[in-house]
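Record type: monomer structure entry
Structure origin: computed from sequence
Chain ID: A
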Amino acid sequence: MIRKSSLILAATLVAVLLVLGACGPMPTPVTDEDTTPEITEEVTEAPPADVPAEDATSEATTDPALPELTEAEPGFCEAMPLPELPVRPVDETDWVKGVDPENAELTIFEYSDFQCPGCRGMVPVLSQFLEDHPNSRLVYRHFPLSFHDKAFVTAEATEAAGAQGKFWEMHDLLFETVAEWSSLSAEDAQEKMSEYAEQLDLDMEQFNEDMETHAYEDKIQAQLEESMQLGLPGTPTFIFGDIMFPSDIGLS
């Protein structure tokens, strides 16, 4: 069951994602053939000239083909159930921020991409939410989209930093500096990751070796495939327990 606190966060997610946009598969182009309406000619006969206008109106409203209006019972609205997903339980491969598992009343799974503007915009929102709700925890999982050319190398950088205990520090730094690395070439982006690792006082020999050998490629690829198998619409996608959000929001 979704708690009140998660509903508050969901409302905030709607506002932020509508402003910043989210990242998802490119929509299927619509051809002119699909959008051109079929033109049909409809002829409306005017009333006979010798029939007064008020009589014509009266005749139209008493047409036996029209349904008779009766007092109806009050209507009601019923909310559609939100989609539930068989999300993988938290394990030792996950990066988790917030309360310890024994005291967690709400677990938020985030499937994210470091080159996604919407993901970047959600960083301060999620940080504030965790601060305001100390019984919650955030689980970060990689969903590097194919059309973001630096999504995979940045994911590798966070994993290499995480191996030295600084996943979240690299996570925050990459989102803060996206303007610096997003337009670089692949080679320059790799060098930029090393610069960030040095800023975080990591063991540079170990970090560079992990990056050059793609030590965490399999883990990131597995999480990408997991995201696809779940049918996630794009990034960022959040799952509260087993409820996916956004469930029906336009992605671009």
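Annotation 1: The chain has one domain: 4-19+81-245.
Annotation 2: The mean pLDDT is 80.
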